[in-house]
């Protein structure tokens, strides 16, 4: 089926990389049909009849079944008619005129407008050259605000933002029931996102207070996992985890067990390389200035990510050789 994705403008590459990584992780073949950077629309031909993977995406604003692109709204309404569920609909578009014009065309075909709880939500994106791209939205819950670290029972200033945490998990190419380890789990930001996506999670931290706080935070979201006290430099056992996703200590506010940060990260990679099988992914977020000699790993992707005015970080997507 063809799917339309309205990518978030938060980053030039990550929204697309996240989609491709989730599809790879879920084992769903895909092909890029078109991409419009101007209005951040990506159309993919995806080899599945069940697009539930869309629910996982943190950096896609809206997505749904692609119906067509045309300058003629009447023609698009006719195409919609064949695919829409009976009953009510709403139209979403940046332009009020487009909303009204497309709404009228659909209404003429016998559907009723319901802005609050429609059977079909129609997405309409205008492209200056080709006209309007139309999709029937796959509704998803993408509100990260109730998972703000400040709203959890245990808070620490180094807690990762939930949206970034979700992107990191997704970049690790894991699917439901795979096992993910965060060996610097802190308050559990990454594990919460993994757990909410139905991924099995395991965490450890050298600081007992963090371990207790992490368990409390997970319980707050109805999640249970194995969280233990441990040193990330001595990881075991081999072959148990499908991926490692982590946010090691950085900067002055964090607890570091080794003054030389580059060596610290590389020692950690050595420890991780002992337990990950070939082809498995390790995703980590480091200070922006970091460069890694990732022995035993291939650096697949690297992204600079602006977090706030005094913090830019770098995401490394590594694949065990
Ligand atoms: C940046 S914080 C992780 C924050 C976490 N992502 C969250 O959402 O709360 C880094 C964590 O690494 C832990 N840590 C530092 N050195 C460690 C080591 N050698 N092994 C395991 N954990 C360690 C710290 O206690 C701290 O909780």
Describe the structure.
With 321 residues, this protein is of the alpha/beta class. The chain folds into 2 domains: 2-137, VC0802-like, CATH 3.30.2130; 145-320, 3-Layer(aba) Sandwich (Rossmann fold). Helices cover 26% and strands 31% of the residues. The chain has 7 helices and 15 strands. β7 (120-127) and β8 form a beta hairpin. The structure holds S-adenosylmethionine. S-adenosylmethionine binds at residues 156, 158-160, 183-184, 186-187, 189-190, 205-207, 210, 231-233, 247-249, 254-255, 257.
Question: What is the fold's blueprint, element by element?
Answer:
Elements: E1 2-7, H1 14-26, E2 30-36, E3 41-46, E4 60-70, H2 73-83, E5 88-92, H3 96-108, E6 112-113, E7 120-127, E8 131-137, H4 162-171, E9 179-182, H5 189-196, E10 200-205, H6 208-220, E11 226-229, E12 243-246, H7 261-275, E13 281-287, E14 297-308, E15 311-320
Parallel strand pairs: 5-6, 5-7, 9-10, 9-12, 10-11, 12-13
Antiparallel strand pairs: 1-3, 1-4, 2-3, 4-8, 7-8, 13-15, 14-15
The structure holds S-adenosylmethionine.
Shape: elongated
Subunit arrangement of the protein: single chain
Q: What is the count of distinct domains?
A: 2
**CATH C-level class of the largest domain:** Alpha Beta
CATH topology of the largest domain: Rossmann fold
- What is the mean predicted local confidence, pLDDT? 93
Q: Please give the number of β-strands.
A: 15
Sheet-strand content, in percent, reads 25-35%
The CATH architecture assignment of the largest domain turns out to be 3-Layer(aba) Sandwich
The H-level CATH homologous superfamily of the largest domain, spelled out, is: Vaccinia Virus protein VP39
Rg over CA atoms: 22 Å
SSE run: EHEEEHEHEEEHEHEHEEHEEE
DSSP summary: helix tally: 7
Q: Gap between N and C termini, in Å?
A: 34 Å
Ligand identities: S-adenosylmethionine
Query: What is the helix fraction of residues, given as a range?
Result: 25-40%
Low-confidence parts lasting 5 or more residues at pLDDT below 50?
A: none
Largest sheet: 8 strands, mixed
Label the structural class.
Answer: alpha/beta
Strands side by side in the biggest sheet: 2-3-1-4-8-7-5-6
């Amino acid at each position: 089926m063809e799917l339309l994705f309205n990518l978030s403008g938060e980053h030039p590459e990550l929204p697309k990389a996240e989609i491709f990584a989730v599809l790879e992780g879920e084992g769903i073949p895909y092909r890029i049909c078109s991409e419009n950077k101007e209005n951040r629309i990506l159309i993919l031909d995806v080899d599945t009849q069940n697009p539930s993977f869309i629910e996982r995406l943190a950096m896609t604003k809206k997505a749904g079944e692609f119906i067509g692109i045309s300058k003629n709204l009447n023609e698009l309404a006719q195409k919609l008619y064949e695919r829409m569920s009976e009953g009510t609909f709403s139209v979403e578009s940046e332009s009020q005129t487009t909303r009204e014009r497309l709404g009228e065309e659909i209404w003429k075909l016998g559907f009723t407008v319901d802005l609050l709880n429609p059977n079909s939500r129609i997405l309409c994106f205008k492209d200056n050259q080709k006209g309007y791209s139309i999709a029937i939205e796959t509704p998803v819950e993408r509100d990260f605000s109730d998972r703000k670290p400040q709203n959890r029972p245990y808070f620490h200033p180094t807690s990762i933002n939930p949206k970034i945490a979700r992107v990191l998990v997704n970049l690790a190419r894991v699917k439901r029931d795979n096992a993910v380890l965060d060996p610097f789990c802190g308050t559990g930001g990454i594990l919460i996102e993994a757990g909410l996506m139905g991924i099995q999670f395991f965490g450890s931290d050298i600081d007992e207070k963090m371990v207790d706080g992490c368990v409390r935070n997970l319980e707050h979201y109805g999640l249970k996992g194995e969280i233990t006290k441990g040193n990330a430099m001595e990881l075991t056992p081999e072959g148990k985890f499908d991926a490692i996703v982590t946010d090691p200590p950085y900067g002055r506010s964090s607890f570091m067990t080794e003054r030389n940060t580059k060596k610290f990260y590389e020692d950690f990679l050595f420890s991780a390389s002992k337990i990950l099988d070939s082809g498995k992914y390790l995703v980590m977020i480091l200070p922006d200035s970091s460069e890694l000699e990732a022995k035993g790993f291939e650096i697949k992707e690297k992204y600079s990510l602006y977090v706030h005015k005094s913090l830019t970080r770098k995401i490394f997507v590594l694949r065990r050789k």
